[in-house]
Amino acid sequence: MLKLLDEEGKMYGYEITQHVKTLSDGKMILTEGALYPTLHKLEAEGLVKTKKVMVGKRMRKYYTLTTKGKKANKSKLAEFQEFINAMQLILKPKTTSS
Amino acid sequence: MLKLLDEEGKMYGYEITQHVKTLSDGKMILTEGALYPTLHKLEAEGLVKTKKVMVGKRMRKYYTLTTKGKKANKSKLAEFQEFINAMQLILKPKTTSS
DNA sequence: AAATATACCTAATATTCTTAGGTATCAAAA
DNA sequence: TTTTGATACCTAAGAATATTAGGTATATTT
Fold first, then answer.
1. CA-wise closest residue to B41 among B1, B11, B6
2. B38 within 8 A of B57, measured Cβ to Cβ
3. What's the rounded Cα separation, in Å, for the pair B64 and B2?
4. Is A6:A77 a contact under the CB 8 Å cutoff?
5. How many CB pairs (< 8 A) connect A and B?
6. Partner-chain contact A7 B87, CB within 8 Å
7. A61: nearest Cα among A69, A71, A50
8. How many domains does chain B have?
9. How far is the CA of B60 from the C1' of D25 (A)?
10. Which residues does residue B95 pair with via DSSP β-bridges, in sequence order?
């Protein structure tokens, strides 16, 4: 979420779920039960700030990264890559011979 | 765990934690609170079977994959790779120009 | 002798996700 | 025109999993 918000500037919750689905060719589904509590937590931690906008009679809540959120994005992305690297080391096939 | 057991043939719990630490250059720590409940669950599901061995006065519980466990290993490895692929698609930097 | 490593384990708590709701507007199909 | 599906927010119960912090005991190293 932080990464998408960093690139897109501002996004609303539903938009984030659609982005995730599109970018992953439908392989990842970010459910609303996972999405909204996380966004609220990010806001409580001061990583994002919100702006409510009315589109017709319907409400949209736009999220944007704070300075703290941009820093968190970088560190979390690096952390995730380290996780992937470590997992690949562990899951790399053990070379039996050669 | 399934992957390590598949390659090593048989392993005991503590050995698995050390393997994970070594393979990942100390970046991943598999704690015992995560390890043992998971091994017990794998056994309950019939993916691994156990054999208790006394080494001096100390007990070791060796785990080996069942046929079902070997199949599960393959599918779980594939599943994890798909997860990584999907995440990389989502986390891939958005090309702004060119 | 004491500290560290080996070797098993559990349990309370915390965290997070899934599932399954609820409310409401808007557009398209039946 | 009604009903379905998409858009758009949300919460809460339950399930799953990890963290933390123990407990027990033997073996080895300092």
1. B1
2. no
3. 9
4. no
5. 51
6. no
7. A50
8. 1
9. 13
10. none
Nearest CA in chain A to B20: A90
Check which CATH number belongs to the domain holding B70 and give it.
1.10.10.10
Query: What is the per-residue pLDDT across A17-76, written as a single tens digit (0 to 9) for each?
Result: 999 999 999 999 999 999 999 999 999 999 999 999 999 999 999 999 999 999 999 999
Q: What is the ipTM of this complex?
A: 0.93
- Residue A96 within any structural domain of the chain: no
Bridge-partner residues for A58, per DSSP? A55
Does residue B29 sit within a domain?
A: yes
Q: Locate tokens 């690139």: which residue?
A: A7
Domain-embedded: residue B96: no
Residue B36 lies inside a defined structural domain of this protein: yes
Q: How many residues does chain A have?
A: 98
Q: Which residue has the tokens 């393997």?
A: B19
What range defines the domain where residue A29 resides?
Answer: 2-91
